[in-house]
């Protein structure tokens, strides 16, 4: 197979970093004056626990006795270590905060909120398990990951640790995670090139082969009607974030599949035109359920008005008004807010994380949330 | 890719061992009904639906999980050997309790087993959209509510499972965030499930109208997954599902 080279966008993604200002939690300060915060550039595609070797020297002389159980929090919210650092930043800082002020703890691990983390090993295995999951989604099995040699596995992990994109591509290409293999890669590269020339040309050529794409969606719910994202209230617990780990299934219908189509497939209620029959645009199925669109609209109507037995017109009204109670304020991937019209093939090829998942942060404005 | 089920049946001739969310819901209803009918000795099984929210409602009718909670198990009787003369009696009693799976605890037994009180398990069966298979989530705690760590879990599961756990620490049982409850739960890793389900169903007797009932999927799945915890299912749970 021909060797694949990195696209310009991939290089930017791999070099992406977030300036962190890390403070030691006051309950763990045993000296006066308290230690100065640690200033660190954290790779977007990396994970917070991997920064501990750099952080520890700043604080070791002031820690109380005991063994380390390191965890991070932002404004009181314990941070899930298995989510890439860049995704946490995109999701939790509505208005990018530079530097991002985090608090580190070396004691008192909140085991009821965070899964255990035993340093680099835990992060590595979380990464490998995600890679297996992605391989299963794309290929229908994870044999290529399971059969990776020890040296390839180590090299792959080191490439992520060191931010070495060339080494990563060399090893990961053996996993054959592109849709349709070379054909997909070539088509994607063509798509990338054409996108620079003309959006119309990109639309014409950026068809994507049928298959499933690994996606992790983080939907943040904000209750107030805020005009500036700056006014978004803080996330104080993880129940305010819906985590949707669900692949997007693409059907080969010759149409250009856009980023908007992908998000619509996972969050159909947030796109009002779904309630209007439109045969010219067929939405990919999120599930194989046999419920018809009308039935779904009807169910939605019933969910809002249990006593309603109205006609289809009324059901359509209910469906539309439901859409008006929630709408998308923001969609972020790798720190940028791409237009929904961008061909999904380009987004996938250029903005994916090394474990082969596309992480998308979505801000949803919700008025009067429905409680049942 | 998963084959669309026709009339609630899986065409096993070209099947990859996976099911859709909708099929999972169908199989879960059948499982809960039969569990509650034929497994009276164990706690009830119920379906917990996903709470409705403004932007997730289109799929909520099928989304949710199966729940069986407060299943009581006892640590392996190795600990009993500390009590010397009571060794035989202790083993016998534990064996009897386990086979009956009731939660009666003799006061004398409780005193003896102060450090190894009964272990309580909550089991949830959740559909995994990536692997398109059910996944078993569980948590374990003592009768006083204290959460058990993995080393403690190891003491109340069959020896062969404990050995597997030791050999493949990172891939057999891991802690993950529960998809609905947003906090850490233990889970059996699902990456091999579709392959052994495919194998399991390939041994089903062929049926003229082509296919095995979707309702059978979860019962068959649990006959394997439940063994990790020494939980066997009554034969009636399988035989009562017609093709």
Can you put this structure into words, describing what you see?
- Chain A: Residues 13-106 form the Autophagy protein ATG5 UblA domain.
- Chain A: Residues 212-362 form the Autophagy protein ATG5 UblB domain.
- Chain A: One of its GO terms (biological process) is protein transport.
- Chain A: It comes from Coffea canephora.
- In chain A, 36% of the residues lie in helices and 16% in strands.
- Chain A is of the alpha+beta class and 372 residues long.
- Chain A has three domains: 17-117, Ubiquitin-like (UB roll) (Roll), CATH 3.10.20; 124-178, Autophagy protein Apg5, helix rich domain (Serum Albumin, Chain A, Domain 1); 211-272 and 322-366, Phosphatidylinositol 3-kinase Catalytic Subunit, Chain A, domain 1 (Ubiquitin-like (UB roll), Roll), CATH 3.10.20.
- In chain A, strand 3 (71-74) and strand 4 (77-78) form a beta hairpin.
- The longest helix of chain A has 20 residues, at 120-139.
- Chain A starts with 7 loop residues before the first helix and ends in a 6-residue tail after the last strand.
- In chain A, 39% of the residues are buried.
- By secondary structure, chain B is α+β, with helices and mostly antiparallel strands.
- Chain B has a single domain (9-52, 59-74, 117-240), classed as 2-Layer Sandwich (Yope Regulator, Chain: A), CATH 3.30.1460.50.
- Helix content of chain B is 33%, strand content 20%.
- Chain B contains eight helices and eight strands, in the order E-H-E-E-H-H-E-E-H-H-E-E-H-E-H-H.
- Chain B has helices at residues 21-38, 87-100, 107-112, 150-156, 159-167, 193-202, 216-225, 235-239, and strands at residues 9-10, 45-49, 64-73, 119-128, 133-142, 173-177, 184-188, 212-213.
- In chain B, the strands form two sheets. A six-stranded antiparallel sheet of chain B has the order 2-3-4-5-7-6, covered by helices on one side. In chain B, strands 1-8 form a two-stranded antiparallel ribbon.
- In chain B, helix 1 crosses helix 7 (216-225).
- The longest helix of chain B is centred in the first third of the chain and has 18 residues, at 21-38.
- The interface between A and B is large, with 49 and 38 residues.
